[in-house]
Write a sequence for this structure.
């Protein structure tokens, strides 16, 4: 009950004054626990020009348990898994670091900051992190090619599960 | 001042599993010690739950729509046990309250983002949370939900008076559906429990365990939890939920207004025509002052705002009437004040005679409050309730006064008796001393008489006989007894060396008389 009220408030905050370059909608109107966030690639980063779909899933115990944030759009980033799941490594969201008083607004801002400045020291994709550290040019090229391949056009939020099935089949 | 074993950020990751499980177990026994159990149940809007269940059960039992065979497990009930009196009301859900004005952000719990309910402040870092929110958070991890300082629920939490006071003053709307009462949050519980007509209480029917608004819970209305067909959409709806059904999900519920063609909920058509419809023909509101305008509402509104010539006179008359009412009210109040003044003066005069007269007069209460007829009260019930509250507070005053008097009295009693006891003890000792003086004096007298006697007996041997015969002569009739006594006495004295008189008491105690 309490969480419903709080989520409604957070949603109100996020929709009235959304974080820069983001638009927020509910996956379906009857369920406030699943948000679809569309993020414009930050202009001064390699992801500029792309539109990324982010799915924010709020557990039933929210705000006592951390929300789960995943990228629906594939992205070439050291801290985001380079697969259909789009899991994201954000210190703020780790269970041992999560604070019930944190706001979703700051979570979304942290996600955006992660795109501007990747954290190669705490990577999910070690290879991309190495590349980011050692061959920045190569990384930027790859990231931009991912943007043109996946992050152009309208954002599809249901893409990962649909694409995941054929990818896992073989 | 973090404890020595505060883990560094990096270490937390490695230790987290044990970190989480062990303290939460240790925490459970002390969980509900600091504050009363917060309301966990849903708000007292049970009607939202039963209609959902209603459609299910009505679908299942369409042939017999009178009553569902199995009670729908309504989410609105806290406990299925039947209880008596006020305690069986659903608790107020303070997190769902609507506030009259926007509440300052600093009074919002950072966890539930609603104004605090039973706020607790952490001692090490000074953050405040609702008790229930903090409780949940500490259950998962015993650290402050804002800065992750380790917290011990049994030691590190306290109340903050300032916050409580501010919260108490917030103006809040009654959570009951249909009630538009607004009061300070402090008084909400009283309104909800005692006075609100829309508080959900147990259904008066003994076999029914659903709830119904207090205003509907009358024996003559019977149980409202039977199903009836909605007159507009033919759905089977509980009588208690009909009003809500009209507003929300009634299938064939809208209709076109005959005047303005607006689509209106059919059940609310009368209200629409009476108040809102712009095309309904109505009279100018200045009609009592002579205006004969009679037109559709929107035109009349324009007319009222701008052109009505009777507006000026109407306002004047209305203002005058208002003034007159105010004058009457002021007169009433003046007379009340006068009366009180007179009473006070009388009291004062009386209090000169009797120093302690309690400042209390039961008789003045009905006149001290503005009477019902003066128009200050919305309804007789309000007036009665106000009276009741006054009486209650008066009773409280009386109780206090009696207790005070009692204390006063027992104090005085104690003081007096102590003094009396002391005096009695003093008198007792004085009596004892006097008694001793008397014995001493008597002994001295006896001694001197004995010496005289011994002196007389020593010089002539016959003088004893002379004395005795003289006394016998003067004694007259009682010769025999007296002479026997005298001979006895002489025998007694002669036994003591003849000369030294015997002193019965002072001999042992020393020669001097006892001192005071």
């Amino acid at each position: 009950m309490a969480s419903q009220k709080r989520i409604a408030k957070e949603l109100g905050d996020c929709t009235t004054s959304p974080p820069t370059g983001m638009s927020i909608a509910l996956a379906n109107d009857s369920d406030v626990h699943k948000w679809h966030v569309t993020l414009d690639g930050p202009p001064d980063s390699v992801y500029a020009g792309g539109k990324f779909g982010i799915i924010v899933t709020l557990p039933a115990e929210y705000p006592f348990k951390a929300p789960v944030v995943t990228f629906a759009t594939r992205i070439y980033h050291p801290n985001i898994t380079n697969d259909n799941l789009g899991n994201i490594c954000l210190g703020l969201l780790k269970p041992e670091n999560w604070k019930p008083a944190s706001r979703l607004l700051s979570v979304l801002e942290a996600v955006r900051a992660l795109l501007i400045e990747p954290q190669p020291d705490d990577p999910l994709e070690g290879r991309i992190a190495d590349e980011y550290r050692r061959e920045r040019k190569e990384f930027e090229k790859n990231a931009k090619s991912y943007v043109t391949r996946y992050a152009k056009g309208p954002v599809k939020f249901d893409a990962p599960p649909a694409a995941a099935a054929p990818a896992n089949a073989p | 001042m973090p404890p020595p074993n505060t883990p560094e950020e990096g270490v937390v990751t490695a230790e987290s599993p044990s970190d989480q499980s062990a303290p939460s177990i240790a925490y459970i026994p002390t969980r509900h010690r600091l504050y009363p159990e917060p309301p966990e149940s849903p708000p007292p809007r049970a009607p939202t739950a039963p209609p959902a269940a209603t459609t299910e059960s009505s679908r299942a039992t369409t042939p017999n729509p009178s009553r569902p065979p199995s009670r729908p497990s309504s989410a609105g009930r806290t406990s299925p046990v039947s209880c008596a009196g006020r305690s069986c009301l659903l608790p107020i859900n303070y997190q769902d309250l609507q506030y009259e004005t926007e509440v300052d952000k600093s009074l919002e719990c950072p966890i539930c983002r609603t104004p605090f309910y039973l706020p607790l402040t952490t001692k090490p870092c000074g953050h405040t949370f609702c008790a229930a929110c903090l409780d949940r958070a500490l259950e998962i991890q015993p650290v402050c939900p804002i800065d992750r300082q380790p917290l011990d629920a049994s030691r590190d939490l306290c109340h903050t008076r300032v916050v409580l006071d501010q919260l108490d003053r917030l103006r809040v709307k009654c959570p009951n559906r249909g009630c538009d009462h607004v009061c300070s949050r402090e008084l909400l519980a009283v309104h909800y429990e005692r006075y609100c007509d829309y508080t959900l209480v147990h259904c008066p029917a003994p076999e029914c365990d659903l709830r119904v608004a207090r205003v509907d819970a009358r024996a003559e209305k019977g149980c409202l939890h039977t199903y009836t067909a909605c007159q507009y959409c033919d759905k089977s709806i509980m009588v208690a939920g009909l009003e809500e059904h009209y507003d929300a999900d009634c299938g064939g519920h809208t209709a076109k207004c005959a005047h303005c063609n607006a689509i209106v909920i059919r059940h609310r058509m009368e209200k629409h025509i009476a108040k809102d419809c712009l095309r309904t023909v109505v009279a100018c509101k200045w009609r009592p002052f002579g205006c004969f305008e009679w037109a559709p509402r929107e035109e009349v509104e324009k007319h009222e705002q701008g052109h009505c010539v009777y507006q000026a006179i109407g306002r004047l008359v209305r203002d005058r009437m208002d003034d007159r009412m105010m004058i009457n009210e002021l007169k009433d109040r003046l007379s009340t004040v006068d009366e009180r003044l007179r009473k006070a003066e009388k009291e004062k005069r009386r209090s000169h005679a009797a120093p302690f007269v309690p400042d209390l007069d039961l008789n003045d209460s009905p006149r001290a409050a503005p009477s019902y007829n003066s128009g200050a009260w919305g309804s007789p019930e309000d007036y009665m309730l106000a009276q009741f509250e006054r009486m209650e507070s008066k009773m409280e005053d009386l109780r206090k006064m009696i207790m005070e008097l009692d204390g006063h009295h027992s104090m005085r009693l104690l003081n007096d008796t102590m003094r009396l006891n002391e005096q009695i003890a003093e008198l007792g000792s004085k009596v004892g001393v006097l008694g001793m003086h008397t014995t001493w004096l008597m002994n001295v007298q006896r001694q001197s008489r004995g010496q005289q006697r011994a002196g007389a007996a020593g010089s002539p041997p016959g003088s004893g006989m002379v004395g005795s015969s003289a006394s016998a002569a003067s004694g007259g009739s009682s010769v025999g007894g007296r002479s026997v006594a005298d001979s006895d006495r002489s025998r007694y004295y002669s036994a003591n060396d003849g000369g030294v008189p015997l002193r019965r008491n002072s001999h042992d105690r020393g020669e001097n008389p006892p001192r005071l």
User: Anything to note?
Assistant: The two ends of chain B are 73 Å apart (CA to CA). Confidence is low (pLDDT under 50) at residues 1-87, 364-369, 462-487, 489-510 of chain B. The first strand of chain B starts at residue 119 and ends at 122. Residues 380-458 of chain B form the longest helix (79 residues).
